[in-house]
Amino acid sequence: MDIKIIGSRLRNARKANGMTQVELAAKIGVSQAKIARYERGEVDMSVSRLIAIMRAVGIGPEILSGL
């Protein structure tokens, strides 16, 4: 799956949960700038980082796959 699509879906999920990039960054231990880069699809993330983000925003893999 395209990293930009994943980033966009993560951003939508974060916003749907009323969370800011700063709040998400604090929850998973990265900078707000890193969250912004993930959401824009500018950088790859590890599987463990992706799972941490998904848990923090309360989504499952079906959201990322578009099911």
Could you please describe the fold and organization of this structure?
The protein has helices at residues 3-16, 21-28, 32-39, 47-57, 61-65. With 67 residues, the protein is mostly helical. It has one domain: lambda repressor-like DNA-binding domains (434 Repressor (Amino-terminal Domain)). Helix 2 (21-28) crosses helix 3 (32-39). The protein is globular, with a radius of gyration of 10 Å. The two termini are 13 Å apart. The model has no long low-confidence stretch (mean pLDDT 92).
Topology:
Blueprint: H1 3-16, H2 21-28, H3 32-39, H4 47-57, H5 61-65
- Return the string of H and E elements: HHHHH
Number of strands: 0
CATH superfamily: lambda repressor-like DNA-binding domains
Fraction of residues in helices?
Answer: 55-70%
Strand-residue proportion: under 5%
**Which regions are unreliable across 5 or more consecutive residues at pLDDT < 50?**
none
Tell me the count of domains. 1
Mean residue pLDDT: 92
| Helix-strand makeup class | mainly alpha
Number of H/I helices: 5
CATH class: Mainly Alpha
Gyration radius (Cα, Å) is 10 Å
User: What is the second-level CATH architecture?
Assistant: Orthogonal Bundle
Tell me the overall shape. globular
Spatial gap, N to C terminus: 13 Å
The major pleated sheet works out as:
none
